[in-house]
Amino acid sequence: MLAAGARVSHHLRECDSQFGFGLTSGLTSFPVVLFPPIWSRKPTSNFPSISRRSQPRGVSFFCSIIPSTSPGEIPVISDSVGSREDDREVSVAGGIVALGKFDALHVGHRELAIQASTVGSPFLLSFVGIAEVLGWEPRPPIVAQCDRKRVLSSWAPYCRNSAPSEYQIQFSSVRYLTPREFVEKLSKELGVRGVVAGESYRFGYKAAGDAAELVKLCEEYGLGAYIIKSVMDRNQKVVNSTNSMERGQVSSTRVRYALSIGDMKYVSELLGRRHRLILMAKGLEGLSNSNSNSRLSAPKSCLLNLAPKEGLYNKCFVCTSDDDLIPCRVVIDSTHVHIEMDDIGTRHPVGTQNYLSVEFDHEGA
Q1: DSSP state, residue 232
Q2: What is the rounded distance in angstroms from the CA atom of residue 34 to the CA atom of residue 121?
Q3: Residues 282-289: contacts with CB within 8 Å, 24+ apart?
Q4: 91: burial class by Cβ within 10 Å (0-12, 13-18, 19+)?
Q5: What whole-number distance in Å separates Cα of residue 331 and Cα of residue 97?
Q6: Structural domain boundaries of the chain?
Q7: Of 74, 103, 255, 314, which one's alpha carbon is 20 to 30 angstroms from that of 169?
Q8: 96 Cβ partners below 8 Å, 6+ apart?
Q9: Fold match between 16-257 and 274-360?
Q10: In Å, how far are 21, 26, 61, 84, 333 from 94, measured between CA atoms?
Q11: Global pTM?
């Protein structure tokens, strides 16, 4: 019987058809597992076991597919393959890897990590340097590079208390690989035990490989391959996209759209958490006190990730170094981000941190 997982979004944006590099699934030695819907699931360290008799029958496609019921450019670390976590080398040997760009680290990406954690040590294997290779216009990341580990750590309760690590490969080193060469690289060079990705994922140069070929190649090289259904955007808001595979699934494009219209409730639903804006502390223009109110301003050049559209956001929080939350209001104009705090007492919004972090709750502009 071939295995399957939960649900996932399509990771790479509209240019995905040019280079592919996704993986799909079906390993023979694991039973089908059906997870609760992403929208209602709570973190847990012990997933309920599901007997074969209670398992729903998937759609046969060289593997079983479980239907969905729901939801910075990363700096290149080395010239070809490698990654770093707290200055320690990360190895994916023996692990289960999910592939993608992982710009937003949204709920679809989290589903990939959840599935990987059910059969082994979970990793996100990211392709970096894609914009430079394909000539895309630079744009700010959704998640700041310095904040990625925190987000991945927050996934641990969903992933059997095992936070996924991130491993990065420069896109230029794999761009021209055929489907067979890419799977061979995963098996022989990286030593992975299995791969996880979405149902519509393509891989190999010019997206030459489809799910069927991927499963066949993985079986040939002794790798487990898991294909999972896309996490659908339950809001089904219209997003302008040239991506031919856009079917309403959760995607980084949709997160960017939600930020562009200042709909922070929508952003939170897509991400599975509040959006956190990171600013460099060294660029702050000073903290002034007046009538028990504190106001802090920073030019947009201090931003390390994508901000919501210009406007007033009433329900926000400044995150201190000791994980305390200071309620605040945020005003974003054409040049600056202004943060207004009440009753901060002895708490300092920056302290010894190199960054100032602001989270946006459900009230949009």
Answers
A1: B
A2: 19
A3: 282/354, 284/350, 284/356, 285/336, 287/349, 287/350
A4: middle
A5: 40
A6: 16-257, 274-360
A7: 255
A8: 116, 117, 119, 120, 121, 122, 123, 192, 193, 194, 195, 196, 224, 226
A9: no
A10: 20, 17, 26, 17, 48
A11: 0.76
Selected from 3.40.710.10, 3.40.50.620, 3.40.50.1000, 3.40.30.10, the CATH number assigned to the domain covering 16-257 reads 3.40.50.620
CA 177 to chain centre: 24
Which amino acid type is present at position 194?
Answer: G
Q: For residues 19 and 246, is the Cβ–Cβ distance under 8 A?
A: no
Question: Distance of CA 310 to CAs 260, 262, 313, 364, Å?
Answer: 9, 8, 9, 10
User: Which tens digit of pLDDT belongs to each residue from 303-350?
Assistant: 999 999 999 999 999 988 777 888 999 999 999 999 998 766 656 666
pLDDT one-digit tens code per residue, 210-246 = 777 878 899 999 999 998 888 999 887 767 666 656 6
The torsion of the CA quartet 144, 175, 106, 283, rounded to 10 degrees, works out to 10
| Residues, the chain | 365
* Locus of tokens 């999910």: 98
| CA gap 300, 334 in Å, rounded | 8
Fold category of 274-360 in CATH = Elongation Factor Tu (Ef-tu); domain 3 (2.40.30)
Which amino acid makes up residue 261?
A: I
Query: What does the block give as tokens for 351?
Result: 């302290």
- Enumerate residues 6+ apart whose C-beta is below 8 A from 193: 94, 95, 96, 120, 223, 224
Q: What number of other Cβ atoms are within 10 A of residue 94's Cβ?
A: 12
Pair of tokens at residue 254: 């949709």
DSSP state of 295: E
Q: 139 to each of 74, 103, 117, how far by Cα in Å? A: 11, 11, 31
Per-residue tokens: 61: 């496609």
24-70 pLDDT, tens digit per residue, is: 333 323 322 333 333 333 444 333 322 222 333 222 223 333 333 33
